[in-house]
Specification:
Number of domains: 2
Shape: globular
Strand content: under 5%
Order of helices and strands: HHHHHHHHHHHHHHHHHHH
Protein name: Arabinofuranan 3-O-arabinosyltransferase
Helix content: 55-70%
Radius of gyration: 22 Å
GO molecular function: hexosyltransferase activity
Pfam families: GT87 (PF09594)
Largest sheet: none
Distance between the termini: 31 Å
Keywords: Cell membrane, Membrane, Transferase, Transmembrane, Transmembrane helix
Number of strands: 0
Main location: membrane
Length: about 400
């Protein structure tokens, strides 16, 4: 009886049989029903209006930033890439955008599965799909019809091409995302650290070329510089889960917000140093994905704008839980993952104040717990390495793989 209950290939097959139909229905529900239905927040309409204005050579950057409605914030290069949407009527353009976003997410799930050495027929593939479409970050990306699916796809292609040492090509997918929104810009530090500088040529060059092409075609390109760029530097107090935005909404003193941001930057610096020194040569995949997660999570917290659905860009780091030595193998870090990725609502009629606090702070708390947990894991490993080094006789130097704990 115990043999029948032990993990076997049959167990994995049963789990796959359970997860595949659930995942497929979940994908349909999130895209066809929730996505098409939309919500009060609509990220697509400003993009569509900007594409239409661009094609008609009308001013694009005419937003009233005093309202809390979604604003069009893409640079001229992003407007150029979004312009083809203006050739389709608004409703069908939105449906097409949702459809292509779902396709991009399916490709991301496949690439993530393959990047960690698993096949489509393994239990990992439906597990990844189920996790993807269970999260708030994917659901709201489809419901609000945002560009984030393509950013995640660009991130994964960037990582896979870096690992394959196709440096010039690695810069292409991340460059296309940077041309629209610069959320992945911190990742450009990774090829620099790994001496893959050629990736920076295309990563920086393509957005520059697209900007040069879009600039004379735009009716008001300088309005982006004069009006939009200063607004992007402000920490707005609505729909903003960064430390500055969340603290501004709650009325926290600015000096405390600066102190918290500095603390998370220092934690990130230590994590990046430790990962670079002890993991880059021994496990490049673990180094790349974990370092990317640290950079992005820190940027979400300390920048002027961090929105909850950016959390999907942490999927590669979350996936490392399948690898020995992962920083994701502890319960506090998964509490952080739940808080920043859950699709649950904590609003309460009976405990309105408590529900409001949880609902408005869960993403900020999630990123903070995630970062602090990763920092503590790596700090304890550093202390273990230092203690072992202190006990090592002079003249010997144990290999990093032997010195580092795997859990």
């Amino acid at each position: 009886m115990l043999d029948r209950l032990s993990p076997t290939m049959d167990t994995q097959r049963i789990v796959s049989l359970i997860l595949w139909p659930i995942s497929i229905v979940l994908i349909v529900q999130r895209s066809v029903f929730l996505g098409v239905n939309g919500d009060r927040t609509d990220d697509f309409t400003p993009v569509y209006k900007a594409a239409l204005a661009f094609l008609r050579h009308q001013p694009v950057y005419t937003e009233n930033y005093n309202t809390v409605d979604p604003h069009y914030l893409y640079p001229p290069s992003g407007t150029l890439l979004m312009a083809p949407l203006g050739y389709i009527d608004p409703e069908r353009a939105r449906w097409l955008f949702i459809f292509v976003s779902v396709i991009a997410l399916l490709i991301c799930a496949y690439l993530l599965t393959r990047m960690f050495g698993y096949g489509v027929r393994s239990v990992v593939m439906p597990l990844v799909l189920f996790f993807f479409f269970s999260t708030e970050t994917v659901a709201h990306t489809l419901i609000f019809t945002n560009f984030n699916s393509f950013v995640l796809l660009g991130e994964l292609l960037f990582m896979m091409l870096l690992l394959a040492r196709r440096d010039l090509w690695a810069g292409v997918p991340i460059a296309l995302t940077l041309a629209v929104k610069p959320v992945l810009a911190p990742l450009l530090l990774l090829p620099l650290l790994n001496r893959q500088w050629r990736a920076l040529v295309t990563a920086i060059g393509i957005p520059v070329v697209l900007t040069a092409l879009a600039w004379p075609l735009s009716a008001d390109p300088m309005s982006f510089v004069r009006r939009t760029v200063p607004y992007l530097g402000l920490a707005r107090d609505y729909y903003n889960s960064s430390i500055a935005g969340n603290g501004s909404y709650l009325g926290v003193q600015p000096w405390l917000l600066y102190l918290m941001r500095i603390a998370f930057v220092l934690m990130a610096v230590f994590c990046l140093w430790f990962l670079y020194r002890y993991y880059r040569r021994t496990n490049e995949l673990l180094w790349l994905t974990t370092s990317a997660g640290v950079l992005l999570c820190t940027s979400f917290l300390v920048s002027s704008l961090g929105q909850g659905y950016y959390s999907m860009l942490l999927f590669p780091m979350v996936m490392t839980v399948l690898m020995p030595g992962s920083v994701m193998r502890n319960w506090p870090v998964w509490l952080g993952v739940y808080l920043c990725m859950n699709f649950d609502s904590f609003s309460s009629k009976r405990w309105a104040a408590l529900g409001r606090v949880l609902e408005y702070n869960k993403v900020t708390w999630g990123w903070s717990v995630l970062m602090f947990s990763v920092f503590c894991v790596l700090l304890f490993r550093y202390l273990d390495v230092r203690n072992e080094h202190a006990r090592t006789p002079v003249g010997t130097s144990p290999e990093p793989e032997r010195r580092l704990p795997t859990s």
